Amino acid sequence: PWQETLWHPTMREFVTPRDFAELMQKSGIRHDTTIVLYSNSIQFATYAFWVCTMRGHVNMKIFNGKRDRWINAGQPITREVPKTKAVHYPIRATDESCRIGRDGVLSGLDNPERLLLDMRTPEEYKGERVSPKWFEVDYGAVRKGHIPGAKHLFYTKLLNEDESFKPISNLDKRFQELGALPDKELVFYCRLSHRGSMAWFVAKYLLGYPRAKVYDGSWTEWGSIVGMPIINDALGKGRIPAH
Prior knowledge:
By secondary structure, the protein is of the alpha/beta class. It folds into two domains: about 1-70, Rhodanese-like domain (Oxidized Rhodanese, domain 1, 3-Layer(aba) Sandwich); about 100-220, Rhodanese-like domain (Oxidized Rhodanese, domain 1, 3-Layer(aba) Sandwich). It has helices at about 1-5, 15-25, 40-55, 65-70, 100-105, 120-125, 170-175, 195-205, 220; strands at about 35, 60, 100, 115-120, 150, 185-190, 210-215. The chain has a five-stranded parallel β-sheet. Keywords: Repeat. One of its GO terms (molecular function) is thiosulfate-cyanide sulfurtransferase activity.
């Protein structure tokens, strides 16, 4: 499971480079092994892709769609767990050029060379909820709203019903309509950064935007920190300066 293998067990951080290398070794994965990622929802596959990218593994592919797409196409499935033989996987240097923290987001709120995109539901963006409306309990942050200057792009707008990606021309049009340019830095966030990672994958690997990043603290961090500026459309509140 990606949470158990890619998240740090106690901190809100990711698996260490050493632990990542050990995971690859015992899984029979070498540096030149191509990993194909899929999940019940494509956002979790792209999230794993993003984390593995930071830990230095570059040979990866995403199954274009959620797991049901494979099943509904009549493709074979199995419950058999493959046997693997441990191999050598040296520790690689961490590359966090695809990641940005809260301080980096805060310092660039008025930067015209940056496009900040909120991938959550309309209700989350407007400040009516802190989690998607299909969650039985609305939880995840102290406050509701969005980061000042963030433009809204509901992540499902990039996907077909089976969660395969929409045509490149459609994706490119949506990004350009929001002001994306090849030389701009694109920063994506959502509630926990899963949906943000999916948009990052689209921007960097399908559309070729070189300066795409994920704010992985996302709203669960930003909406819970004292003094961070927010916009809440539902309350009619404008930007609140940070102290």
